[in-house]
Amino acid sequence: MTDIGLVAKANIHTRRMERFIEGVSLLHQELKGQVPIACEYISPFTVATRLRGTNEIMADIYDLPEMIHQLQKVLVPLDIEVGKLLIEAGVDYIFYGADMECPLLISPDHYREFVHEPTRQAVNKLSEMGVRVLPHMCGEIVNTGIVDMLLEMNIDGIMPGNLTQDTVLDLRSLKEKVGERICIFDNLNPNGSLLGGKPDEVSQETRAHLERAKGMSGYIFSTAGTASPITPRENFDAMNREVLNYK
What pTM, to 2 d.p., does this model score? Predict the structure, then answer.
């Protein structure tokens, strides 16, 4: 617990951070508003996980719950400050990666107890600054009720992820839950045909996704939260071509 005071005094304005922000600013100047800039961002709980370690913080939920609350309390303003720097540099969309608190790792009850409020504070503050926040989370976010908690935040869309290594969330169930309030993102399984199949297989799978979403408002097809760097270029091109030519 004594180390939490040191975290609260941490200086985020490091030379590494300055170089990163400078790069975002240069990109903003180069693009001249023609293309929006999106940047990944992580919640106070995910920052805490990186400080403590995944195994350790999962044990802390049971052994040191107050420590998790206190640690996130000092991380919230630091997290907001990082977001503020990104927004001032020209970032339009905050891609909020939330896999450390997804239902594959913690229960909905633990999400409500440990994750929701600090994340809500950070997300809502960034939204007030004018940026659009888009959370990504793997796992069964609909039936577990996680999506209901996400909808308590000022978000503009949800990017669901894989349920397992082989399957992705059914977008229809998510659409029924969110209605017209926000956008929903869809993607191929990055571990499936996109990574190991042929271009024809990728085209067929992409077309199937688009057909299921036909007539769905607020639908955005994306490249997934994470794609392998060894994804064949011809497969990526086949996916893009199918999306761009779909009618």
Answer: 0.88
